[in-house]
Amino acid sequence: MEATELQAQALPSRTRRIRAAFAQVPALGWLAGILCTVLIEHLWGDPLSYQLYLPKLPVLFGCLIMFKQPVLIPSVLAYVALIYAIPIAAVTLLTRRLANAVASQLSRLPLWLSGLIHLGLLYLALYYWADLSDYRELVLKLTMIAVILTLSINLINGYMGEFSCSHPGFMALGAYGASIVTLLLFTNDRMFGEALLPEALGPWCFPLALIIGGFVASAGALIVAIPSFRTRGDYLAIISLAFMFIVKSLIENVEWVGGPRGMSSQPNWSTLPVVFSWMVICIWVINNFVRSIYGKALNAVRDNEIAADAMTVDTRKTKMVAFLLGAFWAGVAGGLFAHVMRFVNPGTFGIQRLAEILAMVYFGGLNSVVGSIFGAVSINLISEMLRPLEIYKWIVIPLILILVMIYRPTGLISFREFDVRKILQPKQQKD
Amino acid sequence: MDYFLQNIINALQWGSFYALIALGYSMVYSIMMLFNFAHGDIFMTGSYIGFGIATLLLALAASLGMALPGWVLLALTIVISMVLTSFLGILVERIGYRPLRDAPRASAAITGLMIGIILETGNLAILGARRLSFPELIQSTTYHLGGVFVTNKKILIVAVSLSLMFALHQFIQKTRWGMAMRAMSFDFQVVPLMGVSLNMIAPLTFAIGSALAAAAGILYGLAYPVLDPYMGVLLGWKAFVAAILGGRGSILGAALAGFLLGFIEIFVPMIFPSTLRDLIAYSIILLILTFRPYGFFGTAHSTQLRL
């Protein structure tokens, strides 16, 4: 009797103590822990999976194996515990003092420098994680592209509060714009013939191609942005939807970009570092944008346009800037996507893609950069992990989204500021 | 000239599908200021339900040894499927829209979209990817009227859809329920205080819209007897655009815009290559919305998102 009572009292306090210990781990500590586990997997992942009778190294935390062969669930759990959970917990807890000390040293440096150091650690961890299989690398790249897309649509749907359905169209414009530039200038292909410039120059000019793609998308966004001066809400939603269909239909009818057959054999220049750096730049730009006076103006336009106008907000300019910026980043994401898949056709950018993008932004949370990142990563990973369910995947994911919408109508992490300084600072020591 | 008249008849038939589907969008929108994005897939499900009922009735009639005339079977199929599909509409309202009545409108749009995906995938999972062909309920006969070929199916489709629209108009204008719906569309925040329950009117609206979609689905199955799970996506989104074009919650507008869309889609391939059909149709819609941002019969109304 007494023993159970003691246990009942001890349990919460112990969990509280563990939670408190984890609360003291700074971002640096988490990154170090993740890097350690990834290195451990790199070294011992293969032998361990052999010992645990797994057919091969579990690619996405063992989810695919669990669905295919339920017998192997214990070994998958053991693998996840041994490779991921226990090392992360051990490293973060053991090094938390050291990590805090280093983090407080880093916080004295300028923000960009300490930010770059953290990003470098994150990149190393992702690189070693993705190094083990091509599938991981592909999933990682597509997830990062999805982060860019979700951020760019959050600018319009979350911060400005419109319901824009035009993002697949922007993405298509960007994808085709960038592909045309790279195929025309740097590669010998069937569509445009000989390369006009030496191919060695290509990877260095690839950012330029992406930026051109982004500008093409921005130019297309004018079709949606200009009517947004006069109308909003549902009518703007229709205009953006019509825009999406028009872009798709237009590309299908232009023969020199391949028509409905699409464009293929783009050079493989969307490598992991390229996509990663574009994602970081996108997060940086959009986060600064929404925290600037423009972002506040966007929120003002969303909440009450007339009042915003009365408070000297130039509503037209604000809407225009938001649409162009959102479309630009969607275009960049499209360009990256085209060079990851190395094939695009108009069918890629249809209603299905729209549903996917909307799912990501509304799952993660409106009006928040963290929410966008979270939504893009989780929806992408969930949909990859549920791949063994085949068609039932598209029953499970919508059900999750319906539940999220019912209980958290603006998404899981909505209306939150993304403050890099706060994330990177050392955590206070209590004891 | 004959060619032109022939296409007018085709356009009337094609437009009546759009008009019937657009009515469902428009009614829900007028009551709740929300779009039922699952409506296209309700149309698809209605068509499949109609397929099931029709095959069931045919089998039943055959086993009982009765030779029922085709039009009786068709009428029974339409009525039973309309009733069944209206329950689906009520279910969609209950699951996807009632919990989100006070939420931002975009969230309800997402649940609608997701319910649509569930309906498509569920259909694909249950019935498989093979395409079903709608049973031939009535024999097709062709009349030759002054150089124009008219089949009895085309006449039937246009007549049934027009009479359904007329019945809906009468219901909205003449009955007490219709009056409640009109009042609700005028102001859905104040009218509940006058003793009209939104919890009654909203399911009723969804039910009527879904029943019309089911009728459209069966008529579509009569005209183009190949069913596939993604047909709702194709027609639904266009009908949605037609509903907007008609104006906020206007029955007449939605019907007219549906027929207009049908005419555009039939007449564009007469002049241009048929691959340009979507491009030209949407460009015309974009132009119309630029000059009449609230559609044909809509009035300027604050459609600010309730975020």
Describe the protein's architecture and organization.
The complex is a heterodimer of chains A (431) and B (307). By secondary structure, chain A is mainly α. Chain A folds into two domains: 100 residues, no CATH class; 291 residues, ABC transporter involved in vitamin B12 uptake, BtuC. Helices cover 72% and strands 1% of the residues of chain A. Chain A has a two-stranded antiparallel sheet with strand order 1-2. In chain A, α2 runs parallel beside α6, α7 runs antiparallel to α14 and α12 packs across α14. The longest helix of chain A has 27 residues. Chain A is globular and about 60 Å long. The model of chain A has no long low-confidence stretch (mean pLDDT 88). By secondary structure, chain B is mainly α. Chain B has a domain of 207 residues. Chain B is built from ten helices and four strands. Chain B has a two-stranded antiparallel ribbon with strand order 1-4. In chain B, strands 2-3 form a two-stranded antiparallel ribbon. The C terminus of chain B is likely disordered. Classes of the chains: A mainly alpha (431), B mainly alpha (307). Chains A and B meet through α10, α15 and α17 of A and α4, α8 and α10 of B.
